[in-house]
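User: What would this chain look like folded?
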Amino acid sequence: MDEFVTRMLRWYDDHRRDLPWRRADASPWGVLVSEVMLQQTPVARVEPVWHEWLSRWPTPPALAADSPGEAVRAWGRLGYPRRALRLHAAATAITQRHRGRVPSSYADLRALPGVGDYTAAAVAAFGFGARVAVLDTNVRRVHRRVFAGTDDSTAAPTAAERALARDLLPADRAPELSVAVMELGALVCTSRSPGCVRCPVESLCAWRAGGHPPAVTKRAAQRYEGTDRQARGRLLAVLRERHAPVRAADLDACWPDATQRARALDGLVADGLVEPLRGGRYRLPSR
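Assistant: Here's the prediction, encoded as structure tokens.
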């Protein structure tokens, strides 16, 4: 384990990406915003939107003072827009419970609305330097390949995975180890085309030594074209572009299937992303 840690930190020193939320001057709020935005969304799409958010809402109270609809509007095309509502709810809770400052403890972070286990650990580690295990998809992939020799995974981290991640953390540079393993998973030990010859821990990897055994169970790829999710995105795009309430007829024009369109709109209303008004009009949520 010590050799793994040494090699990973050395590799990270030479290969770290210059990401704004990983810089020394990044605020805990900036880290929280980045972690929510990066869920299921590539860095290249997140970075410009992250800069726009931090410029407009540099602190939790700044976002809490604005409407949740503005958060959804500013979310743009990052996808999974309920994350914008969760960030707004978290900012409101931080403002009300913690005097506008992002809390430093895992427990307080985990208690924020919309903040799960991974995000709470990531903000505690990367925002405050806490020695906590951070297990995202990339970290889990590297750990199971190197130490378990398998490409199979469960939906959520197991107790054994958590114990391994905690045991690996050095007394110093613990957050850097977590982000180093994330970087390796994102850039080298990728899901589909791992670059084993460029991996600093290749000679320690049980999966490599075993001949890259394939996963026993594989998840089916999710399609997007023609789905309710795409229909929801089209409807939200119309509402984001207009600051005045939108008539139902204007929404009708953006998706041809009336049944699917109605189902998507009902789902957006149920999720709190769209607010229905009298006269068959709709808008992004107000306070």
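The chain has 15 helices and three strands. If you want, I can go into more detail on any region.
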